[in-house]
């Protein structure tokens, strides 16, 4: 019976195998079953050897359109399936945040090994040697004035000693008091002009100039009487007449009671005197009056006006106009001009050519950042900087070439009751970040650094072994100066607690 059952199982297994074989997709011998047709996905599958379209009919070993990758030489990317194959440089590339190995295809987006810098305690990455400084705030070294630029400096906060400097712009002038400069004095016929000028009280530079006018002076009639046979008057230097009137002779007198003119005397001519003199300029004629007075009565006997011809221009110092500065490739030019100091007329104008500079120029000072140092072009042409180099000798955080300083700071907080800060990793305790005040001390604990600022009562608390001060704030579980008693003669020298074990022993009374 047992053998019959085994034979049955063998026959059933053979029949099942035969049916499976007949149903297979590649069996052409069995014509009575329909042949299976594989179907494939539209997207490409790929590996390092090539690309293909995978079957989606359940026969995962089937592949369609298998081919080696195409067009890999130019950009390492297959033109058919997009598979990317790169070789990468052994040299590191880096920026301030990370480092990586670039692909040899020169596409900056293809990288490997990208990671953040490590071990910047000395401002130098332990992996790629990139120097990354962390500079603090700019501090004033020399304050700027209205004539000179200032200088600021900032130091690396990581303690390496590197620093940077930069010039600061000049500041505005400091206005002084108003100064009056007279340009034309007033006369009794014409007003004058003057300038109200403000100069810088630091450097003396002119800040502003406002032209003003002044009223004419009053006529001056304080001189002697001018007399004729009929009348007398007083004359201002400008020719204006005042107090003019006929002579007045008291009865029986021959002299005017006002000007003392005597009518019966003959006049005696005096010397010619000059009046109303007006100096000539380079644009206007001058003039003056030749006057003869009687030496006895001062009567004016005759007056003749003379004309003075104009004078030559007064040449001032040469000034430059239309100035064009020379460049490193082209000559410059300017006009040398002289003007009359009186009327401002242009007297001469001479074109002058200046030689071009000898080639492009570069600053002698180093320009620097955390990546290195270089010399900047100072001419008008936008040229690449020269002499670029990475910082040298940064063991002390200071570049031996350009003086650049770099610091990095520990993540650990240092604190006291006034605030908290970070110490530079260079080990110099004086190199530290700016102190900040504690934050969130409502619960007596700083939210930033964890400093606990509890307050405590002055009264001692104690038990048999220790004494302490309880917190005066709301945190009753806090204690201060928790220490063991220091007994001396049974009394703690600190808190005054009496040692109960040192109490006197009462001996029993023994009857006599």
Topology overview:
Blueprint: H1 2-23, E1 45-46, E2 51-54, E3 63-67, H2 72-75, E4 93-94, E5 98-102, E6 111-116, E7 139-142, E8 150-155, E9 163-168, E10 175-184, E11 192-200, E12 206-214, E13 226-227, E14 231-235, E15 241-246, E16 269-278, E17 286-294, E18 300-308, E19 319-324, E20 332-339, E21 346-354, E22 367-369, E23 372-375, E24 386-389, E25 409-416, E26 419-424, E27 461-462, E28 466-470, E29 479-484, E30 487-488, E31 491-492
Antiparallel strand pairs: 1-2, 2-3, 4-5, 5-6, 7-8, 8-9, 10-11, 11-12, 13-14, 14-15, 16-17, 17-18, 19-20, 20-21, 22-23, 23-24, 25-26, 27-28, 28-29, 30-31
Structure report:
It is a single chain. This protein is mainly beta. Among the domains are: 35 residues; 40 residues, no CATH class; 67 residues, no CATH class; 36 residues, no CATH class; 42 residues, no CATH class. The strands form eleven sheets. A three-stranded antiparallel β-sheet has the order 1-2-3, with no helix packed on it. It has a three-stranded antiparallel β-sheet with strand order 4-5-6, with no helix packed on it. Strands 7-8-9 form a three-stranded antiparallel β-sheet, with no helix packed on it. The radius of gyration is 55 Å and the shape is elongated.
Please summarize what this structure is.
The chain is mainly β and 512 residues long. 5% of the residues lie in helices and 34% in strands. Among the domains are: 1-35; 175-214, no CATH class; 232-298, no CATH class; 319-354, no CATH class; 461-502, no CATH class.
Average of pLDDT: 81
List the total number of helices: 2
Q: What is the radius of gyration?
A: 55 Å
Flag low-confidence runs.
1-6, 21-32, 505-512
């Amino acid at each position: 019976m047992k053998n019959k059952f085994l034979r049955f199982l063998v026959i059933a297994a053979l029949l099942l195998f035969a049916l499976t074989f007949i149903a297979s997709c590649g069996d052409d011998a069995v014509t009575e079953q329909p042949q299976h047709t594989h179907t494939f996905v539209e997207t490409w599958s790929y590996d390092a050897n090539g690309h293909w379209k995978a079957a989606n009919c359940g026969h995962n070993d089937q592949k369609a359109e298998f081919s080696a990758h195409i067009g890999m030489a130019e950009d390492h990317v297959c033109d058919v399936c997009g598979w990317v194959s790169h070789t990468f440089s052994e040299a590191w590339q880096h920026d301030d945040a990370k480092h990586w190995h670039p692909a040899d295809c020169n596409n900056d987006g293809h990288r490997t090994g990208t990671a953040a810098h490590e071990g910047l305690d000395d401002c130098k990455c332990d992996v790629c040697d990139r120097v990354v400084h962390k500079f603090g705030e700019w501090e004033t070294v020399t304050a700027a004035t209205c004539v000179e630029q200032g200088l600021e400096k900032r130091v690396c906060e990581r303690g390496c000693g590197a620093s940077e400097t930069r010039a600061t712009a000049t500041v505005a002038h400091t206005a002084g008091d108003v100064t009056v400069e007279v340009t034309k004095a007033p006369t009794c016929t014409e007003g004058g002009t003057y300038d109200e000028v403000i100069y810088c009280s630091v450097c003396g530079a002119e800040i502003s100039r406002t032209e003003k006018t002044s009223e004419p002076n009053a006529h001056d009639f304080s001189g002697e009487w001018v007399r004729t046979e009929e009348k007398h008057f007083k004359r201002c230097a400008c020719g204006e007449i005042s107090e003019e009137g006929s002579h007045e002779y008291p009865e029986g007198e021959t002299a005017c009671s006002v000007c003392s003119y005597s009518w019966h005397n003959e006049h005696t001519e005096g010397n010619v005197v000059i009046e109303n003199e007006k100096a000539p300029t380079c644009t206007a004629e001058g003039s003056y009056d030749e006057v003869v007075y009687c030496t006895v009565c001062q009567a004016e006997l005759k007056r003749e006006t003379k004309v003075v011809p104009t004078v030559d221009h007064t040449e001032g110092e040469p000034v430059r106009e239309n100035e064009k500065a020379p460049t490193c490739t082209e000559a410059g030019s300017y006009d040398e001009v002289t003007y009359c100091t009186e009327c401002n007329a242009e007297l001469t104008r001479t074109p002058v050519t200046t030689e071009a500079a000898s080639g492009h120029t570069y600053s002698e000072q180093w320009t620097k950042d955390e990546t290195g140092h270089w010399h900047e072009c100072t001419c008008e042409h936008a040229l690449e900087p020269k002499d670029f180099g990475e910082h040298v000798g940064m063991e002390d955080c200071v570049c031996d070439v350009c003086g650049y300083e770099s610091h990095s700071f520990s993540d650990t907080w240092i604190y006291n009751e006034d605030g908290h800060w970070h110490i530079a990793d260079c080990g110099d305790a004086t190199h530290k970040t700016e102190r900040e005040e504690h934050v969130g001390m409502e619960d007596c604990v700083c939210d930033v650094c964890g400093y606990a600022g509890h307050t405590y009562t002055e009264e001692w608390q104690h038990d048999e072994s220790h004494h302490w001060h309880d917190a005066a704030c709301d945190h009753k579980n806090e204690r201060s100066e928790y220490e063991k008693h220091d007994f001396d003669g049974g009394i703690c020298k600190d808190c005054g607690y009496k040692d109960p074990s040192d109490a006197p022993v009462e001996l029993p009374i023994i009857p006599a």
